[in-house]
Amino acid sequence: MEKRYMGFDDLLVRGAAEYGDKVALVHGDDLATTTWSELDSQVRTRAAELAATGKTSMAVLANGSQPCFVEILAANIAGLQVTILDESTPDALMPLLLAGCEADCLWCSRPERAEALATYLGAGVTDGARRVLFLTSGTTSRSKFVALTDESLMAAPWTGAPLFPLEHDDRLLCILPMAHVFGFVCGILWPLHCGAEVALGRGPRHYVDDCRHFDPTAISVVPNLLAFLMGHNLLNDRLKAVLVGAGDCGPELLAALQAKVERVAFGYGLTETSSGVALGHGADPRAMEVCNAFEVTIADDGEVLIASDTNLMLGYYRRPEDTAAVVVDGVLHTGDLGFLDEDGCLHITGRKKEMLVLGSGTKVFLPEYEGEIHAALGTPEAAVALVNDKLTLVLGKTELTGAKAMELIADVQARTPRAQQITRVIELGHELPRTATGKLKRWELQGEIEG
Length: 451
Hints:
Elements: H1 8-19, E1 23-27, E2 32-35, H2 36-53, E3 57-62, H3 66-77, E4 81-86, H4 94-100, E5 105-107, H5 111-117, E6 131-135, E7 145-149, H6 150-160, E8 171-174, H7 181-193, E9 197-200, H8 210-214, E10 218-221, H9 223-231, E11 241-244, H10 251-260, E12 263-270, E13 275-280, E14 289-290, E15 295-298, E16 303-307, E17 315-316, H11 320-326, E18 327-328, E19 331-340, E20 346-351, E21 355-357, E22 363-365, H12 366-377, E23 382-387, E24 390-395, H13 402-408, H14 410-414, E25 424-427, H15 442-450
Parallel strand pairs: 1-9, 3-4, 3-5, 4-6, 8-9, 8-10, 10-11, 11-12, 24-25
Antiparallel strand pairs: 1-2, 6-7, 7-17, 12-13, 13-14, 15-16, 16-19, 18-19, 19-20, 21-22, 23-24
Helix pairs in contact: 1-2, 2-3, 6-7
């Protein structure tokens, strides 16, 4: 197995010593570069400044930029707990999230926003060194913070890179958000671990031209972004390796990608495992080889169970009961359904929990989401379903019209990121299908609305 970096500090020390003036990061409209030595120097200078402040817990509103990445590494090396949030987080959610991660300082690219949010900062923590927090499902009030460490995050590319290596002359385009563990690990830490260059994408507005602008040899994407790039012929000619993950990807899309790009891999992982667990990189990318740091078993009911000495989360932040519900005797109960074939490859077949996974990899926790919707509508005769990768409100036997329902849930939607908002309504005209105990038959409902 390849060399293992034991954390962010180790990555910088050994990376600067080995690679020196070799480019580590490429960024911006002008294709500016940051060498390994420059990255090490910038991070250490900023870490010293942060250590002098006496702050203990930083929330980073990540925008994918080079200064943002420097800040994350510096805060960690300075001994602060670091929580990585998406810059697009609605202001209405920020008080809850800043309190939840116990932040006493904030990094934001917009000074006026940072000033406005400063009033919600707290007293910090006394036990946060090395912890790096990510949200389980993007930024929503229903999400939980997952406590990882820089060591577990650096263990992720260490265990995955042997299955899908990059060369020193490769350039990987990081087009995914840093606030998503897949984007942070497979968009930045993986290529750095391999000694390759990282091109930091310029955000969603540049999805149409970043491949042409940075001319990468590799890219990591989620399925819906891949479909967009392929559908608009936006992949550059020099591209030779694509890693797809964080959501289900249909075989047709993967086959079309294989016809265009030399090396294609499909990955399975969770925030709770510091990203990748298994990787498919052969003729059938959906048949995934389990990475060496993990032991995967299948429970009697088909649930995928995962154990690892190096990559599992510390737990859900300040939520020991939630942690105990999914980590039993050191084994993570994923809520995913799957099987191991005769070659030991993992196949994922669905979800055990009541959760929807969008093509972006974002998870929507239905009981919590629907609870807020039921309260707003004043009726339980409503459900959230996924139709063509769009969140859809399904109304059962109710006097509400679709327009009125959307009006009533407006406040709920305002507290929800745009990607997780309801975009359409289906009016069934009859009661939602339920079991004898009143539990919604989601599979039956899905079949009806798709039929």
